[in-house]
Fold:
Amino acid sequence: MFDDLHPIVSTHENFDSVLVPQDHVSRSKNDTYYVTEDTVLRCHTSAHQLSLLKQGEKKFLVTGDVYRRDTIDATHFPVFHQMEGVRVFTKCELSSTELAPQDFVSQELKSMLEGLAKHLFGEVELRWVDAYFPFTDPSYELEIFFNGEWLEVLGCGVMQKQILNGASLVDEEAWAFGLGLERLAMVLFDIPDIRLFWTNDERFSKQFKAGMFRSGGHNMQKFKSYSKYPPCYKDVSFWLPNVSKFTENDLCEIVRSTAGNLVEEVKLIDEFHNPKTNQVSNCYRITYRSMDRSLTDEEINTLQDCVREALVTSLGVTLR
Ligand code: FA5
Ligand code: MG
Structure:
């Protein structure tokens, strides 16, 4: 169990060591926080897989803070925590079954994670979704039905042979998973918004103390929501400069660096294509809300003006 590995890793660890292709979007400065040209704030705990395997670890967990320029909403935050799990199966373990090694490992993985979900939540509605990760094949995501929607809580799969070979494991197979710890806590305690983990409001923090978790969710104290401060909605419409260049993440990053924690959601509410000029216009709704206090109109207007200005100067859009 590793929980103190440094969050600044090389691009090699974060990407190459787990076979992320050169042209994969996650490598862009739009998605990942670069510290220097060849170091980043890790965007997943998978960055440590290869070096731990090389050290001879065969069964391990890694917990840590991870960082991403991501969507802004109730289940995404630019810093969150993951727990990585890896288990290597020896040739001998693999030969004890009739199944093809990959099928066996995949079955083991799924039943272990279903067992974990049952241990944590008791009866819970879950489903497996086929996924893609460069470092596993087959790959899956596990979703849990929470607050009327399917919430993705983890990604996993059978580790690519190439990674194992890189750690001199030739006859072995392995599974790996990476789960979002805030998301698990949200389901466990009924926490509706990921930003609550960052509030200083005692109405939140006083509701939790070490050791209050009960396996299977039995008699567990759920989060009692208190009335939220009112939201403030601001729409911004603009013509895109060049359709292929603008990304929603660019906008999110501008909003985040301007309004920080005060932004709850950034959502595309209208897209319009003018066939005559071949121009595209987007309208985004930005929801401002503080978890800790009431925001004033003046404050929001100032933030919104800054966002509008940055959209023009940084992204070259034309405001409507
Ligand atoms: C990964 O990060 C893979 N490294 C997981 C993995 C490990 C796959 C080993 C296979 C083998 P993904 O990007 O889906 O995958 O993130 C994993 C989990 O982190 C998600 O299921 C979700 O629970 C959580 N997560 C992702 N982005 C955010 C975010 N912005 N805020 C909060 N939680 C997030
Ligand atoms: Mg995912």
The first helix runs from residue 11 to 14. The chain has two domains: 8-189, 232-319. Residues 44, 46, 68, 70, 76-77, 80, 82, 84, 133, 135-136, 139, 152-157, 176-180, 182-183, 194 surround adenosine-5'-[phenylalaninyl-phosphate] (ligand 1) (CB under 6 Å).
